[in-house]
Amino acid sequence: MKNRTKLPLAIRFISLISADKSSGCWNWLGKKDKKGYGQIDINGRSWRTHLFSLDYFRPLEYAKLVPNKIEPDHLCRNTSCANPYHIEMVTRHTNLIRGTSPIAINYAKKMCIHGHPFNEKNTYYIRDKHGGVERRCKECNRQRALAAYKANPEKYRERQRRYNEARRGLG
């Protein structure tokens, strides 16, 4: 059995960092997860290095995580960065829209695919089948409905007739 002495945690952590002078990132050279986040094992538990770094160097910021439903956001967008000063505590919504996920890409769009603006007057929201919210263009919806009516006006006249009969029956 080898007689290995463990290095103090701070020295072990710092020995696995490569500082990038141009970006200021502390790039993690050790173990990483599938998403590229650095990992360090402490007392049998695996920590993401940016969270460990935040807890070690900025404990007051780290303390905000759990009770307020706040999460860390890498401002540098480098998942292997362990620099605690590249992390801002934000809400889940803010973290999502700052990223590069499909949610963030769609949120950043200012117009629908046909060039109509996404603004308060021309936008409505619906729940999708997964419980999320989808943003829709009112002008596109109006144009689709008009095209459907022109393609089969009798179908829509019949629907309107049934609707009017039902209203008369209620009144």
Helix content percent band: 25-40%
Average per-residue pLDDT, rounded, comes to: 88
Tell me the distance between the termini.
Answer: 91 Å
Strand element count: 8
Percent of sequence in beta strands? 15-25%
Count of runs of 4 or more consecutive helical residues: 7
Low-confidence stretches: none
Estimated structural class: alpha+beta
Largest β sheet strand count, sense and barrel closure: 2 strands, antiparallel
- What would you report as the Rg, rounded to the nearest angstrom? 27 Å
Q: Strands of the largest sheet, in order across it?
A: 1-2
Shape category = elongated
**What's the order of the H and E elements?**
HEEEEHHEEHHEEHH
Brief synopsis:
With 171 residues, this protein is of the alpha+beta class.
List keywords for this structure.
two-stranded antiparallel ribbon; single chain; two-stranded antiparallel sheet; alpha+beta; 171 residues
Description:
The chain has 171 residues and is of the alpha+beta class. The chain has helices spanning 9-15, 49-57, 59-62, 92-98, 102-108, 138-151, 153-170; strands at 17-19, 26-28, 39-42, 45-48, 71-74, 87-90, 123-127, 133-137. Strand 7 (123-127) and strand 8 form a beta hairpin. Helix 6 (138-151) packs across helix 7 (153-170).
